Amino acid sequence: MSGKLKITSVLLNIAHSLPENPGVYQYFDKHGKIIYIGKAKNLKKRVSSYFTKNHPYGKLLYLVHSIADIKYIVVSTELDALLLENNLIKKYQPRYNVALKDDKTYPWICIKNERFPRVFQTRNFIRDGSHYFGPYTSLKTMYTILDLIKKLYPLRNCTLNLSKENIENKKFRVCLEYHLKNCLGPCEALQSQERYDESISQIRQVLKGNIASVIRQLKELMWAYSGKFDFENAQLLKEKIKSLEKYQSRSVIVSPAIEDADVFSIITDDAFGYVNYLKVVNGAIVQAHTIEMKKKLDESKEELLLLAIAELRHRFSRGSENPPSGGHSETKEIIVPFELGMDFANVEFTIPQIGDKKKLLDLSMRNAEYYRKEKENRDAFSSKEKSAGRILNTMMNDLRLKDLPVHIECFDNSNIQGSFPVSACVVFKNAKPSKKDYRIFHIKTVEGPDDFASMEEVIYRRYKRLAEEKQPLPQLIIIDGGKGQLSSAVKSLEKLSLGGQIAVIGIAKKLEELYYPGDSLPLYLNKKSETLRIIQQMRDEAHRFGLKHHRGRRIRETIVSELTAIKGISDKTAEKLLQEFKSVTKVKETTEEKIAEIIGKEKAKNLIRYFKDPL
Predict the structure, then answer these.
(1) pTM, to two decimals
(2) Rounded to whole angstroms, how far apart are CA atoms 10 and 8?
(3) Is 533 helix (H, G, I), strand (E, B) or coil?
(4) pLDDT digits (tens, 9 = 90+) for 95-123
(5) Burial letters for 414-445: b for 16+ Cβ neighbours within 10 Å, e otherwise?
(6) Domains in the chain, ordered, with CATH?
(7) Which pLDDT does position 324 carry in this prediction?
(8) Residue of higher predicted confidence among 386 and 149
C-alpha cells in the first residue's frame, strides 16, 4: 500500500506542475506503455482530478492505480486538443480509450495530379497533389458515379506521360479507346488541354455534389451552340444534361433551404456508442456512414460524439481541394442532438427542435438505430453459429465419432397394415433442420409390412444416388429402430462399398437406446443431454414427415380408386381431375361443361351420370 501511495504522491507532484493550458495528456504504465490518452481545456485541473477525486467504479479506479508516468503536449485551443487526441488514439490504441470498431479502408475517387488528369478509384491515399473524393462506404454508389463520369466525359485511362514536348514530338499514337470513343485522343493533340480541363472541372463539381451548377453551365453552353445553329453539339449537351438530372433525382433531397451541413447523431448502450454521420450538399444527402465505438471508462455521450465528429470530419474531408487546418471539411454548419461544450473554428453548431433540420437529425438517429439492430442480429447469428459448433463437438464426443457430424440424415418407415409404405429421410446441417433436403421414398421392391427389407431398399437407393451424383455424404446416419433395422442399413452401405465410411446408429423407441453396428450392448445417454435431444428431434421429425406423406398418399390413392371405378375414367384421367379440382366433392359440385374442358365430353357425361345415380 505504501508503494502505491509513494507513486501517487509522485504523480500528484507532476499533475500540480502541469500548465493551465489546453493540451493532450498521456498515461503510461510501469512497462512504459501508453494506457490512456485524453484531452483537456486545462491540463492541470483535468489531470489532477484523477488523483484527488474518488473513483467508485472499477475500470477508472484500476486505470489510476496502473499509472506510472504522465506526459503531455500543450496546444493552442481545445479543438486542437480534440484533433490531436483523436490522431494519437488511432496511432497507439491505448487499452482504456474508446475503441473505434470501424477500421475498413474505403475507396476514393482520385483525380490524378498530372497533365490531362485521369479519374479512377483507389484505396491508397497518396499526398502528391492529386484530389481525392470520398471515401465511399457504398461501392455501388462509387461505381454509379464512375459510370456516369465515363458516359459523360471521355477521358484517357492510359499512364502515358502526356507532356507538351512528347505530344509535339508525336511520341504517341491513339489506341483502341479512341476508336471506341472512350477517349478523344489528347496524346495526338486531337483534344486540347483547355477542353480536357473543362471536363475535369465539371467532374470535380459532380464529385462535390454540385450537380445543379454543372447542369446550369451545360444548359448555357447548349443554348449558345443552338444560337450558332450547331445542333449536333447542342444535342450532345442535352443528352449529358438528361443523364445528370437522372442521377441527381436519385439523391435523397432533404430541403433546398438547408444547403450544406454535417449531421451527427448518437445512441448508446452499456458497452457501445453508435454515431451516424450524414453529409448534406445543396440540400441532398451525398454521404452517410455509421461507426461503432466501444466504451472503456463509461464515457458520456458528449465525449463519444466529440471524438466521432473529429474522426469523421477528418476522414471524409481529406479529399477537399483546400482543406482547412485541422482537416475539417468546408461545411460551416454541424447539426447535433445536444450541446457539446466545445466550439469549432468557423463552424456553427445547431440543435434543431422543429422543421427540416430536425427531420434530418431524426433520419440520422434512425440510421444509427438501424445499424445497432443490424449489429445485434449479426451477433445473435454468430452466437447461434458458435452454439451449433459446440453442440456438434458434444455429439462427436458423446457418440464416439471420428468426424464432426455437420451433416446428419435420419430414416423412418411408415405404413398402416402394410398399405402404401413410405420411408422418410430428414436432414440436419449444423444441428438445424435443412428442409429443402428432406426426401420421401415410396417402397418399390417390398411386399407387405417388412421394415427390415424396406430400410435396406431405401438406404441403398439414397446413397447409390448420392454416390453416382458425387454429392456430399453425411457424417452420421440415424436409423429409427433397433438392431434389425440397423443391420439392414449397414448391409446396403456395404453393398455400395460405403461400409465404415459413414457412422451409423440406431435408436430404439422404448428406452431411447442407441445401437452401433456389430455391438450387442446399447449406449445410454443422459436423458437431458443435447446429443440425445438432437437425435430425438430428428427421429420425431422423420416420423412426422413420413406420416404426413403417408396420409396424403393414402387419401389420394383412395380418391383415385373411387374415381377409377367410374366407366371410362382411367388413373391418368382421375389424376387430371384431382389436379384441377383438388377433391371429389369439388368435382361433384362442378358443371358438366367445366369437367368436359378437362377430360372431354364423353367422360364428363359418364362422370355426371355416375354421381347422379352411382348404382
Answers:
(1) 0.48
(2) 5
(3) helix
(4) 888 877 654 566 888 899 999 999 998 88
(5) bbeeeebbbbbbbbbebbeeeeeebbbbebee
(6) 2-97 (3.40.1440.10), 108-209 (no CATH), 261-372 (3.30.70), 407-553 (3.30.420.340), 565-612 (no CATH)
(7) 33
(8) 149
